Task: inverse folding
């Protein structure tokens, strides 16, 4: 069979940047993948798809985890695979119910490490109140994988009174983030590169069930939730502005960033705005409820450092703009290419 | 972080046999994985898990596909990833509704090949009447994957009058298979090894929606359906006998096997009983309905070569026994180790 033969034309190939969550990922998905699968729910590219059956709305979401290293301060691929998918269900207002767990193991992988990872996934699922209902295990030859890849796919139920969607975002909405950004990405990168300067840092990897459910009551007028994972907070803001055709304005000095993350980012030439988080949410909230929601978030151990970072504005529609500490402003672009590969 | 360090004790490692669908796969799942995830539905290890929400039974199943080569006569990894998961939903009597599609792509993979595979997955999903509702794309560095791995996770609805389960199998039930066994496994292996002798053969890879739904009416008394993929027909029969504590007797000369598959299996030292299928079902049917069900199956293009191969008996409980063509009999054991790796 022809596999990868090249009959006189140039063969286009997948690059690491196609998987990094920025503009090239978006291009690959839009131009190569979506054209084959036309369902409008898929095309919305939200954190979870919603479908209705028997008068009930269910949320459905999938993620494969290819993080390296498999173990990092604050978590491992098992915890991440549960928390990441649970958080994607939460983004559409669902109560997470069930997960599938599929393992692709490289031949020679340590069974002890597998046990540690499964223990961690199990603990995280108990904490999040989700049940692993089905699974699959495949083994590939040495050199054909990278230790372990994990896929989790989640199902949840959306209560009938909950309606979260970018479509609900309005001019005036306040933008909150549930804590400091960039912890996960910088932690994983520091481990990978052997940097000592970030030794105090750990990943924020966590399931945010309690935190999110504390503000889902429709009285609190939360319009939209987003999970700033691959591509970070900056990508969430740029995407929402473009898709929803609104202006977004955020204040650099209001965005919480830990000193270690800021320092490491400067040394590495990274912008924490684009660094992945695995235990944070971005909320768009009606202005008159923003203070109330913020105070509720701050009562949860996982939201103690929540902050109001900006708002949705009438000016510069389709653009997210950062007002810098020194009084200037710059557009938050969708990053084009490779950010931090294999971060989740 | 310690990763795979060895502090004076021997490190046990995952082998290819752990992924081949035989006894070692079962051991890994039972002794390493299941102990961390205690849900009784998961522990049943059926093709799909069932859960109830809002008075409706939903089926939920996951599979990762790591087949090599990615393209083979009769299909490719895209078609396989749709058909395999659809068939797992069918095994519990569900009407397949939605799939997730998650790709782990190796850096450098040809975009043209990706397009071919997605086209094929898309066509198969249209044919099976399922919608791809959510997806994920990850890229790993060259040498850390193997071209493409695909995970599909499926959701379906089980009609209220359908109840398929090994628990319903009774002594006297007739065992049917929907066509010749071993086509998929021998096709993939022949491609991989470059064998010319199987050049006429193609994989049976197919979604069996129409075929299965034609016999699901409770009037036809189909008690249990199984999808003889990894581990083949032999593993299905040995597992059912052991789990259900019944005797199973099948007649070698009634089991349909194509000449090419038989020939290739002999040369390769394989037993077609244990070779994977990707477009076949094994049915356990009440004796008085077996002829009727067989005649319905034979009317479908994908069931034309269906056959009655044996029955559930009172003798030798927990054992599946093959009566050979020459009048002897032998126990169909669970294969212990490596059968055919990377076949699905």
Result:
């Amino acid at each position: 069979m022809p596999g990868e033969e090249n009959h006189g034309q140039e063969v286009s190939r997948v690059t690491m940047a196609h998987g990094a969550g920025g503009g090239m990922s978006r291009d690959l998905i839009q131009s190569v993948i979506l054209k084959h699968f036309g369902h409008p729910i898929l095309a919305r590219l939200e954190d979870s798809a919603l479908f209705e059956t028997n008068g009930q709305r269910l949320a459905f979401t999938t993620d494969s985890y290819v993080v390296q290293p498999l173990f990092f301060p604050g978590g491992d691929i098992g915890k991440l695979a549960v928390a990441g998918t649970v958080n994607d269900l939460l983004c559409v207002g669902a109560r997470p119910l069930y997960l599938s767990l599929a393992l692709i193991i490289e031949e020679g992988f340590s069974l002890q490490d597998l046990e540690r990872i499964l223990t961690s996934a199990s603990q995280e699922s108990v904490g999040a109140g989700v049940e692993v209902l089905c699974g699959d295990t495949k083994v590939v030859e040495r050199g054909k994988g990278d230790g372990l890849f994990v896929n989790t796919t989640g199902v949840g139920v959306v209560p009938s009174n909950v309606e979260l969607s970018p479509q609900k975002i309005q001019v005036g909405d306040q933008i909150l983030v549930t804590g400091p950004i960039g912890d996960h990405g910088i932690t994983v990168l520091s481990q990978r590169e052997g940097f000592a300067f970030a030794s105090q840092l750990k990943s924020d990897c966590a399931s945010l069930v309690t935190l999110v459910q504390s503000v889902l009551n429709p009285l609190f007028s939360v319009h939209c939730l987003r999970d700033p994972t691959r591509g970070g907070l900056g990508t969430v803001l740029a995407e929402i502005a473009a898709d929803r055709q609104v202006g977004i304005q955020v204040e650099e000095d209001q965005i919480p960033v830990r000193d270690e993350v800021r320092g490491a980012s400067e040394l590495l030439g990274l912008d924490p705005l684009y660094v992945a988080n695995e235990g944070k949410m971005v909320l768009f909230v009606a202005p008159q409820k923003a203070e109330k929601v913020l105070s509720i978030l701050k009562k949860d151990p996982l939201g103690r450092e929540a902050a109001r970072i900006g708002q949705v504005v009438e000016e510069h529609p389709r653009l997210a703009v950062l007002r810098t500490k020194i009084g200037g402003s710059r557009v938050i672009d969708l990053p084009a290419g490779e950010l931090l590969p294999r971060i989740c």
Notes: Chain B has two domains: 46-157, 166-331. Chain B touches chain A through 89 residues (CB under 8 Å). Chain B is about 30% helix and 25% strand. The longest strand of chain B covers residues 95-106.
